[in-house]
Amino acid sequence: MKELVEVIAKALVDNPDEVVVTESAKNDEIIVELTVAPSDMGKVIGKQGRIAKAIRSVVKAAASREDKKVIVEIQ
Prior knowledge:
This protein is α+β, with helices and mostly antiparallel strands. The chain has helices spanning 2-12, 41-45, 50-64; strands spanning 20-26, 29-35, 69-74. The protein has a three-stranded mixed β-sheet with strand order 1-2-3, covered by helices on one side. Strand 1 and strand 2 (29-35) form a beta hairpin. It starts with a helix and ends with a strand.
């Protein structure tokens, strides 16, 4: 899941080298934290959170194929 979020985020931002994705496991959930440059935050979130919601939907669909629950946090 980490690689998927990283590829999507790097395609959206102006500073792809500042994209940092970390993955940690809690109970039976996988938490993926996405950190981008402050100037790119709007590009990752989108108007009314549409892009962030789309990223979460894609990751959720990929995780459901593996019977895992993934939470994407954008920081």
